[in-house]
Specification:
The complex is a heterodimer of chains A (about 150) and B (about 725). With about 150 residues, chain A is of the alpha+beta class. In chain A, about 40% of the residues lie in helices and about 15% in strands. Chain A has a five-stranded mixed sheet with strand order 2-1-5-3-4, with helices on both faces. In chain A, helix 2 packs across helix 3 and helix 2 crosses helix 5. Chain B is α+β, with helices and mostly antiparallel strands and about 725 residues long. In chain B, the strands form eight sheets. Chain B has a seven-stranded mixed sheet. In chain B, strands 13-23-20-19-14 form a five-stranded mixed sheet, with helices on both faces. The radius of gyration of chain B is 27 Å and the shape is globular. Classes of the chains: A alpha+beta (about 150), B alpha+beta (about 725).
């Protein structure tokens, strides 16, 4: 069936079953490929987007459940104050290696910072443990979140 | 001699292992025909540089970027001699063309083996320098002045005496008539402006804002999306499948069958996956359908006593064993491992009657092109590979099985189709690091120091399939990488027992290649001998490394930084492991503790590295951190099991990898060096498991010899 989705401030009409995960609608139907597929069962966090400001794993979120809500992806997270700060810290620390998981890392870190302006190591662990990075950028992710918090 | 010694020797001799016949010494002198993406009139002084009249200078990257930072480092090498700043350049993926973009040391268009910088350190600087000289000569001729009165800086030729300046872009009409210099002097290291500086990665901005394009992000006009199920059994085939349940799913367009897989093609991947899930597929499990890991481990165990081929022989081990005794014998066992790159395998193709486009991220673009030509029957020059950023490689994307499978599917689809593997398919159909066992046999002299050292390596000969040039008399020189060990022992003997995985189970290269296999038993074994001799493990190694000043330098720095001589409380321990491979020297010290609850906690890992002339220090630090985290995942969790001739694990729940909260403090220190650059992408991995095992022994008194670490080992009864 046809759905109207609000993604990054723009309306999109998409004609897919309501149980299709939002991830594929974003990537394939709308063409926003910044959000990544990693595991398909909410284990790795690569597909993290914000739905009404909250971090969600789009690989398991049925598109029907996103209707009527504000979806924000990596392509627009820099428009938020926390997102911009996180992205800048990511560049300042030079966190990224292959980069594939980093959209999800940045979306999770932004949500963390929005909810908790000065996270402790334990706070960082609790939120960021849901995001896997095979390049092992974890030490720099931690440093960048702290840097972004300090810049707030 | 290991593969890397061969490579190092060939570097030092300034000629190339097997590349000479394909690409000569690398720098292609003379102006090249334009690339498809070049505008008419652009200046292409060599395959790596393209200068337009206006705008940024394109640097064409012969190696692929999979996180290791090579795009930035290669750009730095080119920029250093071309005399441009890094904000004046834009980077391009090289097309699939081994005649121009082969790694000079490997003779093929391959990114792997931590070989890129070693292979191109001189080649790229010469490419930059020769282009600069052509531009300087063209400007000087136009001005009627001597070229040696001109200099180049920041993309301009400057004649200081008259104050004249010419941007490189303004010289592209005049430059082609200049002779390309054959003798290209290079700057001494003391004059480097870019090399050796910590430069921010050039690929970060697009990776931070989501615009970076990986293979999985390719969306050619009219693309369809396929989900696949591959026969779970190693040697199995598709028996039957009924299309109807999938075709009933909205958006599904087609079901494609190949001999060992089924693909559902739809207008988005979500619909394709839903359609695939609706199918009841019957597989023929094939001849290996009852195999279990127990069977495979039994076979590997039997192979320990199998027929071995001699590799390196120094002195007389048999005589030394007879004369010295007792013989100390240790068997170290490594499990089957996946790569689990974050970007699952994928490939997009548009197969037409007379041509084909391929969009993929691959470590072997030339092989990918050849594979597609083979599957489609198209001539090689009708297959265009559009290479992409790689969402992790680690050796997985050195194989083209995913490209072949996608091509077989795409042949049956009208229009372009993107084939995306699920994580489950990615884990169950990897090119695995197969079971690898090592038996070390040693005898000690009256001073406690080793007199004889025998190392028998049991594992597959991946190179026999993948790069036969790296085999010798039946020996895979890669699996033997580092087996000879750095230690001065008068009687040494290394040997190889070829032991392959069952048919249909693909085995391949894994981060750290031979070194991750052999440093583990060598450094574990050396530690066992040191404790047997009751000599401090670092002191023990030092005595055996007097001929290895660079390794000693790394060792001494690590001991200092880790506070090796400071005592630790009971239940804690430090362990050391050294590695010499990829042209680099590393020392790693792990510090662990085991609490009352029996749980292992890794407190800290210190790594020092001497990798010769450093191009980008920040990248060296990042790659060591990366290699350590990769090694920790394997040490703590890496183990694939087999049941019914199929891999059991399927996703990050039953095949876990390290997460941020489990990551210890990691410290990296670079030993300053002006030696030739070594590799770095794989240097951080080999020392992880042995340094941990050696630390655990000190903390608990338990000597572990099998990976992964069984956390239950430490529960006190």
């Amino acid at each position: 069936m046809s759905h109207s989705l609000l993604v990054n401030g723009s309306e999109y009409a998409v004609d897919v079953d309501d149980d299709i995960p939002l991830l594929w609608v974003l990537r394939d139907t709308i063409g926003l490929t910044g959000t990544k597929f990693g595991c398909g069962i909410a284990l790795c966090g690569a597909c993290t987007v914000h739905v009404d400001g909250l971090p969600m794993r789009s690989c398991v979120l049925p598109v029907g459940d996103a209707v009527g809500k504000r979806v924000t992806t990596i392509e627009a997270v820099g428009d938020t104050a926390e997102g911009a700060r996180i992205q800048k810290a990511w560049l300042d620390i030079d966190v990224i290696q292959c980069g594939y998981c980093q959209s999800g890392q940045i979306m999770s870190a932004t949500a963390l910072l929005a909810a908790n302006p000065s996270p402790t190591d334990d706070d960082i662990d609790a939120v960021m443990a849901g995001n896997i990075c095979r390049c092992g950028t974890y030490p720099r992710i931690r440093a960048a979140i702290k840097l972004a918090a300090k810049a707030g | 001699m290991s593969i890397h010694d061969k490579v190092n020797a060939s570097v030092s001799r300034r000629h190339f292992l097997i590349g000479a016949s394909l690409t000569g010494a690398g720098l292609v002198i003379g102006l090249q025909p334009s690339l498809s993406s070049a505008a008419a009139g652009d200046l292409e002084p060599n395959p790596f540089i393209r200068i337009p009249a206006d705008g940024k200078i394109a640097l064409i990257m012969p190696s692929v970027e999979m996180g290791q930072g090579i795009y930035t480092s290669v750009a730095m090498l080119l920029a250093e001699e071309l005399e441009v700043t890094l904000d004046q350049v834009v980077l391009e993926h090289a097309p699939a063309d081994p005649t121009r973009y082969a790694n000079p040391l490997l003779g093929d268009q391959i990114t792997g083996g931590s070989l890129a910088i070693r292979a191109v350190y001189e080649q790229m600087r010469k490419a930059g320098a020769s282009a600069r000289m052509v531009l300087v000569n063209a400007a000087a001729r136009g001005w009627g002045v001597a070229p040696d009165t001109c200099t180049a800086e920041a993309g301009q030729v400057v004649h200081a005496a008259s104050g004249r300046r010419a941007a490189y872009g303004s010289l592209i009409q005049a430059a082609p008539s200049e002779t390309v210099p054959q003798d290209v002097p290079l700057k001494p290291a003391s004059s480097f402006k870019v090399i050796g500086q910590s430069v921010r990665r050039l690929d970060s901005p697009e990776k931070v804002n989501g615009t970076a394009k990986f293979g999985i992000d390719a969306r050619p006009e009219g693309v369809s999306y396929a989900a696949i199920a591959i026969c779970p059994h190693f040697d199995g085939k598709l028996r039957s499948v009924d299309d109807k349940p999938a075709m009933a799913v909205k958006g599904v367009k087609q079901i494609v069958r190949v001999e060992d897989a089924v693909a559902v093609v739809a207008d988005n991947t979500g619909a394709a996956r839903k359609g695939l899930a609706a199918l009841a597929i019957e597989w023929d499990p094939g001849p290996s359908g009852d195999l279990s890991l127990t069977d495979l481990e039994k076979r590997a165990e039997d192979a320990i006593g199998g027929k071995a081929l001699p590799h390196i022989k120094e002195g007389d081990v048999t005589k030394a064993e007879a004369e010295n005794g007792p013989v100390h014998e240790f068997v170290y066992r490594m499990p089957i491992l996946t790569h689990s790159a974050m970007e699952p395998m994928n490939c997009t193709l548009h197969v037409r009657k007379d041509s084909c486009d391929v969009w993929v991220g691959t470590q072997v673009a030339g092989r990918a092109r050849q594979a597609v030509a083979d599957v489609t029957g198209l001539p090689l020059d009708k297959v265009v590979v559009h290479n992409h950023l790689l969402g992790g490689g680690f050796g997985r994307r050195l194989d083209v099985d995913g490209v072949i499978l996608a091509a077989k599917i795409a042949k049956q689809v009208d229009g372009p189709v993107k084939v995306t593997w699920s994580r489950e398919e990615d884990i169950r159909h990897d090119c695995y690091r197969y079971l690898n066992y090592s038996k070390i046999t040693a005898t000690l002299g009256s001073d406690g120091m080793p007199v004889s050292w025998r190392h028998r390596v049991i594992g597959p000969a991946v190179m026999a399939r993948w790069l036969p040039a790296f085999t010798r008399d039946g020996i895979d020189l890669d699996i033997m990488g580092g087996a000879e060990s750095s230690y001065a022992i008068p009687n040494k003997y290394t040997e190889f027992v070829r032991h392959e995985a069952p048919d249909g189970m693909l085995t391949g290269n894994w981060r750290g290649v031979g070194a991750t296999r052999n440093i583990f038993p060598i450094e574990g074994g050396m530690d066992e001998l040191a404790h047997t001799a009751k000599i401090d493990p670092i002191e023990y190694r030092r005595r055996l490394l007097q001929h290895k000043p660079r390794l000693l330098g790394a060792l001494d720095l690590a001991a200092e930084k880790a506070g090796w001589s400071n005592a630790l409380p009971q239940g804690k321990g430090r362990g050391i492991a050294l590695s010499e491979d990829f042209g680099s020297f590393a020392a790693m010290i792990s510090e662990v503790g085991v609490g009352e609850d029996g749980k292992l906690k890794i407190d800290r890992i210190v790594c020092t590295v001497d990798c010769g002339q450093v191009v980008n220090p920040d990248t060296v630090e990042a790659q060591i951190q990366s290699g350590i985290v990769y090694g920790l995942s394997a040490a703590l969790y890496g183990r694939i099991t087999v049941q019914n001739g199929a891999v059991v694990e399927s996703n990050f729940d039953d095949s876990p990898v390290l997460r941020i909260h489990e990551t210890p403090k990691i410290e990296v220190y670079i030993v300053p060096s002006s030696e030739a650059p070594g590799g770095i992408g794989e240097v951080g991995t080999p020392g992880v498991a042995p340094s941990l095992f050696n630390a655990i022994f000190v903390a608990t008194g338990k000597r572990l010899r099998s990976l992964p670490i069984d956390q239950n080992d430490f529960r006190r009864v």
